[in-house]
Amino acid sequence: MYEVVAFYLFSALTIGLFLITVMSKNVLYAMTALASGMVLISGFFFILGADFLGVVQLIVYVGAVMALYSFAMMFFDATRDIKEKNTPAPLIFLLGGVSALVLVLMFAGPIHSEAIQALYPMHEGVGNAQDVGIVLFTKYLVPFEVAAVMLLVAMIAGIILAGRKMEQSLTEDQSADDEILQQKDAK
């Protein structure tokens, strides 16, 4: 029962947060919604009993989104679009209470529910992380390696593109400085 309620709640929230990510014009709002959506995706793994994958989702993807978040704050002046609003205190209290209730239900759910069986047979005497490793490095070895190569290529391409933008901005800054010096010399 708890798994069904948690699944539908997480599904609705995840879809809503990813819609905010796609539709938002503000970088900070989009990145916050993306990070929150990734946290809720890890909740799906925890519901299914794949604790290792849930923790990996939290550490790797949410960590990567937070790094992206900090870079977005550095590169874009995203705070200029934000206008401070005073939210009514009862609304904040209600949202905080609902969030606390959802967290309590999330942590109490596995205690009162039946264990969900994974799609792959579990090996006897092996933990969740070892079982994921066995499946990953036997049946899914080639897709795992292809994904690793794709991530490596994307990382190298990102470094090259960032280097080009840095060179371009340095030349623009230098030409602007030269122009200012020429204007001072003309006076």
From TrEMBL:
Can you supply one Gene Ontology CC term for this chain's record?
plasma membrane
Origin superkingdom: Bacteria
Its localization reads: Cell membrane
GO molecular function terms noted in the UniProt entry: NADH dehydrogenase (ubiquinone) activity; oxidoreductase activity; quinone binding
- Spans through the membrane: 6-23, 28-48, 54-76, 88-111, 140-162
Q: Name the catalysed reactions.
A: a quinone + NADH + 5 H(+)(in) = a quinol + NAD(+) + 4 H(+)(out)
Q: Please report a single Pfam family linked to this protein.
A: Oxidored_q3
UniProtKB keywords: Cell membrane, Membrane, NAD, Oxidoreductase, Quinone, Transmembrane, Transmembrane helix
Bilayer topology reads:
Multi-pass membrane protein
| Enzyme Commission number(s) of this protein | 7.1.1.-
Q: What is its main location?
A: membrane
UniProt similarity note: Belongs to the complex I subunit 6 family.
Function (record text): NDH-1 shuttles electrons from NADH, via FMN and iron-sulfur (Fe-S) centers, to quinones in the respiratory chain. Couples the redox reaction to proton translocation (for every two electrons transferred, four hydrogen ions are translocated across the cytoplasmic membrane), and thus conserves the redox energy in a proton gradient.
- Name of this protein: NADH-quinone oxidoreductase subunit J
What species does this protein belong to? Answer: Sulfurovum indicum
